[in-house]
Structure formats: C-alpha cells, structure tokens
Amino acid sequence: MKDMIKLDGKDLAVKLKLNLKEEVNRLKNEVGRVPGLAIILLGDNPASKIYVNSKIKGCNELGFKSFGYFLSEDTSEAKLLELIDELNKDERVDGILVQLPLPKHIDEKKIIDRISLNKDVDGFKPENLGLLMLGNDEAMSPCTPAGIIELLKTYSIDLVGKDVVVVGRSNIVGKPMANIMINKGATVTVCNSKTKNLKKKTVEADIIVMAIGQPKFLTEDMVKEGAIVIDVGINRTHEGLVGDVDYENISKKASYITPVPGGVGPMTVAMLFVNTLKAFKNVNYIK
User: Fold this and answer.
1) What is the total count of domains within the chain?
2) What is the pTM of this model?
C-alpha cells in the first residue's frame, strides 16, 4: 500500500483565505463595500468565546466587516429575535451567525427560522437544507460538510461509486454530509453510536466520516486497508484535543486521513467566510 496522506485542512484553509482576501479587495473597488458578518454570542462559555473571537479575527484578516454582539446568558428570546430582525434589515450585514448551543430558555429552531434566507451563512435553515438535498448549487451548505467536500476535491478524491459510511446524524454535519455525497454519486450509509454491527459497516467502507463526539471511537479494527477517514470530532481529554478516530493506529492503515486538530476544523471556519462572500455576491448580483 502507498504511504498515508494527511488531509491538511489547516494548509488548505490558509490558501482559501488568501484567495478570499484578494477577491474582497477587488470587489471593494467594484461595489464600494465589503462583505459583512454579524456574530451573536449569548453567555460566556469559554469554548464559544474562542470560536467567536477567531471568527471576528478572521473577518479582520480578510477585509470583511464584522459585527460582534456579546449578550448576557439571560437575554430573553424576544430580545434576540428583535436583534435578528434588525440585522435582517441592515444592508451592511450579508451573513448572520448565532453561536450554538443557546441557553435552554431559547428555542434554537425559532432563532434559526428568523434569520433571513439570504443571510443564513451557517446553512441551517430548512429551506437551505432542502435545496442541498435536491442538489441545488444555490444552497448555502453547512460549513463542516462543505469544508470536507473542498478537502476531498483538493486531494482529487472522487466520490463516484464510493461506499461511504457517515457515523453521526446531526442536522449540521451527518445528514447534510450524507446528502451531498449521495448527490456526488456515492453510495451512503448513515449510522450512529447505537447502530447494530457498526464495525461490519465501517470495515467495508471506502470512506468513513466520523461525527459523533466520542473520543477515539473508531478503532483500527473497524477500518479496512486503504480507507479514507474523515474525523469531524473535537474532544477535550486529559491527553489534550483528540478526534472521534484513533488517529495514531488508523493512520497506519488509511490511505488518507484528517488530523485533529488541523483537519476539518480550520476548513469549517474557512467555509463560513466562503458562504458570507457568496451571500454578498448574491445580494449584489455578482456571478
């Protein structure tokens, strides 16, 4: 078997951002403004704060305009909906991101539904997910699945005819990931941590996407020689950050594998900016 190739999301994300920065500079001269991203955070969850600050920093690096809203955890649902209504009308804002998870007293579905379709840069609205299922290129893809597809494309990994197992069925990773891969010609099986005989399914897969949030859940004996392994998980353990995949041992068998950190994570953030630029171009009728 040929040597394993690491799917380097960190390196690709840097290249994508350089291209975005060049395009934003060009569009600024043409349109007279730059893409604007509004980011809303409720509460002071340390991990969420890190994510939000990294997105604001990314906006500044790329020449985007960022609008940060740091609200207290006890902010009412009505107040949050009021803010989203204001941002929907604000012509400087092309994308609205509400950092999840939200406090328990707020209905996440209601908040996502309130965001204008053309500003749904997370791709979480039912309309966008429906367009995605239909294979419509106008859909705003959720950032993690979009980042994975970009990685596979960059490394010339063709999905046509591949047997794919997606472990995880969330609305933001598992389900959209499965739909995108089906539309690209793969044969897809969607599993979860309670699937019967999971090993029997993963060991036959050409590509495995792990997204269940359980440290090192996928072990070497669950993977066939030469498989392509995509690890979406980010788990904080006493060993530090680890994925849903036993990277050290599976990397000896896999043909391609994403590391954690430095694999899918940086691509997820990069695709948020890609989606924001797409929203900006849509509203300005730029192809």
Assistant:
1) 2
2) 0.95
